[in-house]
Fold this sequence. Notes:
Blueprint lengths: L5 H7 L5 E2 L2 E3 L2 E3 L4 E5 L6 E6 L3 H18 L4 H17 L1 H12 L3 H21 L6 E4 L5 E9 L2 E5 L7 H12 L3 E5 L5 H18 L6 E4 L3 H9 L5 E5 L2 H13 L3 E5 L4 E5 L5 H13 L9 E7 L3 H13 L19 H16 L3 E4 L18 E4 L5 H4 L6 E7 L2 H9 L3 E2 L1 E5 L3 H8 L8 E4 L11 E3 L1 E2 L5 E3 L8 E9 L16
Parallel strand pairs: 1-5, 8-9, 8-11, 9-10, 11-12, 13-14, 13-19, 14-17, 16-17, 19-20
Antiparallel strand pairs: 2-3, 2-10, 4-5, 6-7, 7-24, 15-16, 18-22, 21-23
Amino acid sequence: MSQPTLQEALKSLSIDNENAGTWMGVNAHYSDKKIPSYSPVDGSLIGYASFTTDEQYEKSIIEAHKSFLEWRNVPAPKRGEAVRVFGNKLRDQKSALGLLVSYEMGKSYQEGLGEVQEMIDICDFAVGLSRQLTGLTIKSERPEHFMMEQYHPMGVIGIISAFNFPVAVWAWNATLAWVCGNSCVWKGSEKTPLCSIACQKIWNEVTLEMNLPKNLSIILTGDKNIGVKMSQDKRIPVVSATGSTLMGKAVGEKVASRLGRSILELGGNNAIIITESADLKMTVTAAVFGAIGTAGQRCTSTRRLIIHESIYDKVCNSICDAYEQIKIGSPLNTKNHMGPLIDSDAVNNYLQSLKDVEKQGGKFLLKGYQLKGESYSSNCYVTPSIAEVENIWNVVQHETFAPLLYVMKYSDLKEALNTQNNVPQGLSSAIMTNSMQEANMFLSASGSDCGIANVNIGTSGAEIGCAFGSEKETGGGRESGSDAWKAYMRRVTATVNYGSELPLAQGVEFDES
């Protein structure tokens, strides 16, 4: 697949200098207030999107609900057919959309392609799911009765996504919600608004070609106030939010206060335990990609290495050597391994964390800094850092969304597990070992307390077949594969009496005399 130019990609996706921020189905709605989208790759202005006004928001929710009322009665396999067509259109636009993701967000072009592939994969999953939306039949204690559990769509699903995966996480939610019979309202990140608009335009083609209800997908664009509106809106029974723990707590509190349902995927503080028997080559590959992939801006990025004391120096030296080979620059250049952070705020937060590490007594094996010069004109490029720390330090307990890797020693696997688990977050974890006993201890109930526990692979990267999600302050939500679809459905328990008598449960009888 050849890499298109930026101009070719934008033209293919119908992205220009002026782009509506509110899309009610196939109709664009502009407002006077604009959001500029600057690329962290070179600082260039890509284009504008407009803020969603209060009036546009209100109309959007009304229209999304109308579409839901129609869509829920369409047979699920027919709903799946629409998602199949969408997936095929994503295949056609994979190189263009992947490049836009790379340029607007800053991840490598290969990672951009991977993110679009993830969208395609979840479409395939959702198509199959549309013929597998199962319930249960349960034997009744009463004669000539049977019981069953059914699943029905919820209504308008609210999706709030983050800049680091500007298209895939939306697709995780939207495709499942659609085949389950729901409509979707999406607030993408204001840092990557054009990616959202590009996805909407692709979906619009499906809507027109298949004569679907026009407002199954609606885009809202703006700052956190849009998210607040969605969280408080009783007409949105489910809100799926991806972002920081601070944001997720605010969303979860507001949704819970109205007894709504939230799916939260929040910050990570992911560790790899490296045992004496670990394969060093595999370990270095997993640790380096996990720590610097997407410039450390994944919720599953590797933040901590917990290394057995007998191999500590050897592992640290190998990883430092690998870091010295990392090429930093434009993510559109396939020779580079690491691109920019998303914006200047992210750079400042990273540099402040480096200061905090030193204040708390940390020792840098490699200390990062901001890159300057013509090749780094956006001022968003940094070099990665590796620091020796104590797990209990405040700076280590909080996630720094940047390429900052912490290393620490352990002597006993139980100690390593306690160290791994002794942070507020609980998303991803991994162990590198050739010991079956150690691997199974890690996977046991007394092992990793995270939603994702990997053996001999890193913390970063997930397939869509299994549910993706977390524990503790990472939110506890589940998205993507397995039975994550149930989060977008309401469960109904039904009992059918096909006899001519009316026996009561638990053998209760009333004297009819």
